[in-house]
Amino acid sequence: MIQIIPSVSLFNGKVVRLSKGDYNSKKFYNESPVDLCQQFEDHGIEVVHLVDLDGAKKGNPINYHILEAIASFTNLKVDFTGGISTDGDISKAYEYGASYITAASIAVTNKELFASWIVSYGREKITLGADALDGKIAFRGWQKNTSIELFEHIDYFYSRGLKYVKTTDIIKDGVMSGPSFSLYEDIINTFPDICVLASGGVQSVEDIERLNDIGVFAVIVGRALYEEKISLKELDVFLSKV
After folding, report:
1. Cα–Cα distance, 97 to 94 (Å, whole number)
2. Which of 5, 130, 133, 146 has its C-alpha lying 20 to 30 A from 38's C-alpha?
């Protein structure tokens, strides 16, 4: 059964959502990150995806204190991402309570280093963030575009032991227009031993069920939860089937 992972994005220490990675499209939410995560935990969620947008933009993590608070006041496992670019960043993330880390930019700027992390930290602890616009990798909080093909990028690390990849079709992010089902199906068919975390566009439980049918390992959900397109009660029903 597919795992549901709420996304909690942070900007200036507050919960925020962007559309298509555009920092000018910021929409802030009133809930504190800890309160929000406690709500998720109360409804059967086990993992949250904590996105340090400040860190992604700057190139090194900023919001360790919020990671620490969530780890301290909930029993959730936290997948921490945003600006992780050194071994020190990873060590600090684990020190402050992260269970896993997702890194994207470093996999573009220093492929060998990211590949070494899969070995040194273990493939269960490291997720590749491979987000794409029109099939080409974008990084640094999606502020920088490349000519790197998404499948070529995944393949480089897949051949070096990668187990988890989080992929966002950026054009779908934050607009709740439905996920890129065909993209995820193609990734699974091309890399049969990889665990895909789908992100972007989810607008209903039906979307989650369809991703489950495709064979997606986990779905990361953000705006649809905050704006109650998907209610926590619906999640209760869905998770009760697991």
Report:
1. 5
2. 130
List residues bridging with 47 in a β-sheet: 77
Question: CATH number, domain at 167?
Answer: 3.20.20.70
At residue 178, the pLDDT reads 80
Give residue 23's pLDDT.
56
Distance CA(187)–CA(194), nearest Å, equals: 8
Instruction: Report, as an integer, the average pLDDT of 64-84.
Output: 97
Provide the number of structural domains found in the chain: 1
156 lies in which domain range? 3-239
Cα dihedral across residues 44, 47, 51, 52: positive or negative: positive
What confidence tier does 198 reach under pLDDT thresholds 50, 70, 90? very high
Structural tokens at position 152: 């070529």
Contact 194, 164 (CB under 8 A): yes
Residue 238 half-sphere exposure, CB side, CA atoms within 13 Å?
20
